[in-house]
Target: DDE Tnp4 domain-containing protein
Amino acid sequence: MADIAIAQSNREFHLNKLAKTPSELDMADQGPLREEYPASWAILADKGYQGLHRNLRAITPTKRPAGGVLTVSEMDVNDKIASDRVIIEIFFGRLKTLWSVVGDTFKWKRDNYDIYFQSCVAFTNVHIRFMPLRAEDGHDLHRLVNGLISTGQKKKAKRAGSVAMSRDKRKRRLSAMYANGETFQLSAEMEYDESEDGSCIFD
Model:
């Protein structure tokens, strides 16, 4: 599922967290989309969230049009957004380096993830008070993300190899049955287990 789809499916959660408190409604707010969302603070997002502004007060970089170029003003805004987002990447680098439960594949009960994540964020904030964020933390985030992507690709390749091997074994088994002159029928009601990738490999 794409990141923007996940964000849209959690729209009510984000609206609740972005809502200004009564005392904040009178605070100066010169940010983008303030007229469309006067009672909401904004989210800074990357280009993968294009269109999110239709659901939330989301500030995203402007994508270069096909065959065109960005204006000087658009490039300036993109640079400012990128600069502000750096601190976010640095924070997540520290978070994921400190706590493997949020920096690696989560294998426990999904319903418990929120409490673990919130606890790790709270502990990270305390850690930062004693050890301020550094640029190296951002590099750690990229290293961890690249590692997860590599692991995911390896698992996908291994799964594809297993499916191919199962199909090959089945072909050889059926070929042997035909060679021995055996006949068989596959009933429409025959039960079989469907694999996660939808290959419907018979046992």
Notes: Residues 101 and 188 are 45 Å apart (CA to CA). The helical segments are 3-9, 11-18, 72-98, 100-103, 113-130, 135-179.
